[in-house]
Amino acid sequence: MVAEREQWGSRIGFILAAAGSAVGLGNIWKFPYLVGENGGAAFIILYLICVLIVGLPVVIAEILIGRTAQKNPVGSFRKLSNGNPFWMGVGALGVFTGFIILSYYNVIAGWSLGYVVESIKGSFQNLESPTMAGELFTQLSSSGQWAVLFHGLFMILTMGIIYCGVTKGIEKASKIMMPILLVLIIILVIRGVTLKGAKAGITYLVKADFSVITTKTVLLALGQAFFSLSLGMGALLTYGSYMSKKVNLPSSALSIVILDTLIALLSGFMIFPALFAMGLKPAQGPSLIFNILPVMFNSIPGGYFFRIFFFLLLSVAALTSTISLLEVITSFIVDEFHISRKKTAIIFSCIVFLLGVPSALSYGSWSSFKIFGLTFFNLADFLAANIFLPLGGIFIAIFVGWFWGIKNALPHLKEGAEKFPNYCSNIWSFLIRFVAPVLILLVFLSCLGII
Ligand code: TRP
């Protein structure tokens, strides 16, 4: 017997779950260091433009596919394309990408959980410089046991939520965790901007210097918008498949995009004012969060607690994202192979855990094991984020804009949004048919080094 498909209990439940998927390490870890390396406010403005003209239209398109078909990515494309194998392949690519992203994303999520524990233990109290923190980071992340232990623990947390189902698991967890996340980030922003010397950091975030912008910056901004909004692999599609047709889709999509962007901006205001106040430099790259921040908190009054809050914030944000990734795989297996959700959650968490172990060890005993010159971790990240996601994004835009077609898609978009104005549909249609595919193609070619 096939059980009836679950639905979100409420509109806000859906919005918080989807925003939870979007808000993650991408916002708190990656966005600030990209801002720091690429000219502060100028990068932020570019990012906002990318979110508006590509991010939002594709978010709407992806949710729409799922809500219309009420199936996992493969099933949705099958239904809407009448079984066209190419489009089903696009859905399958999405599920596969989810596998890969989850395997290494969960490793970083594990580090943040590990850092909560280390913060409580006080391991960072005596560190004086980012170099010392860097050494500790290397020591921890290269210790296979530590990395694999927290990778495993985080996978268990993710599995537990998916095991409980859509409303009792994902929706409930998001409704608890998203407000916690907001409160934590606001506390940390207030702490940051009230430090002596924080003004320089605020100026850095609001004063745009466009001379530093190059085409590469534009492409970085677009790539980041994509990853941050969880686009291109069917995560939002899957969440959309649990959405009622009575709910206003465009306005829900807008709320998701606003929440994601707001948290990214707040992350900037959490980190830079404090960084400048401590006399540190903004351009620190990926190590910003794990090397610089733990030390930075030492010079902040109450730093011991704020450090715990910070890594807790990171873990919570990551958890609402890992569950969305595991849900894509789960919905696919449950729909297509009629295996129970509980069994699927357990079996596939174990598989993803094993797949992630080489990534977890990439910073330690496996660091010299390279494929195409990349460690396992970097290879997984490169393949997923730079190749499969943009490809998936282009295909989603082309599918809705050209294959399924705006004419067929629009009536579904207007279900639950009868008042959606015509000029908005026209703008959406133009963006999804022309702007999104072309811009994403440029990012893709640039990531491959072709342009
Ligand atoms: N958006 C999340 C972040 O910013 C990561 C994420 C979750 C994701 N699900 C995804 C990225 C699906 C791409 C596709 O951290």
Can you give keywords for this protein?
Hydantoin permease; binds tryptophan; two-stranded antiparallel ribbon; 18 helices; 451 residues
Extract low-pLDDT stretches: none
**If helices are DSSP runs of H or I spanning 4 or more residues, what is the number of helices?**
18
Counting DSSP E segments of at least 2 residues, the number of strands comes to 2
Count of domains: 1
- How would you write the strand order of the largest sheet? 1-2
Secondary-structure element order, N to C: HHHHHHHHHHHHHHHEEHHH
Terminal Cα separation, in Å?
A: 52 Å
**CATH architecture grouping:** Orthogonal Bundle
Helix content: over 70%
Q: Could you give a short account of the major beta sheet?
A: 2 strands, antiparallel
Give the CATH level 1 class: Mainly Alpha
Quaternary structure state of the chains depicted: single chain
Summarize the structure in words.
This protein is mainly alpha-helical and 451 residues long. The chain has a single domain, classed as Hydantoin permease (Orthogonal Bundle). It contains 18 helices and 2 strands. The protein has a two-stranded antiparallel sheet. Helix 1 crosses helix 14 and helix 16 packs antiparallel against helix 18. The mean pLDDT is 92. The structure holds tryptophan (TRP). The site of tryptophan has 16 residues, from helix 1, helix 2, helix 10 and helix 14.
Helix-strand layout with pairing:
Blueprint: H1 11-22, H2 25-37, H3 41-69, H4 73-80, H5 85-121, H6 130-142, H7 144-163, H8 166-193, H9 199-206, H10 215-228, H11 235-240, H12 249-277, H13 288-296, H14 303-337, H15 341-361, E1 370-371, E2 374-375, H16 376-403, H17 406-414, H18 422-447
Antiparallel strand pairs: 1-2
Helix pairs in contact: 1-8, 1-12, 1-14, 2-10, 2-12, 3-4, 3-10, 3-12, 3-16, 3-18, 4-5, 5-7, 5-14, 5-15, 5-16, 6-13, 7-8, 7-14, 7-15, 8-12, 8-14, 9-12, 10-18, 14-15, 15-16, 16-18
This protein binds tryptophan (TRP).
Tryptophan binds at residues 21-22, 24-27, 101, 227-228, 230, 233, 235, 321, 324-325, 389.
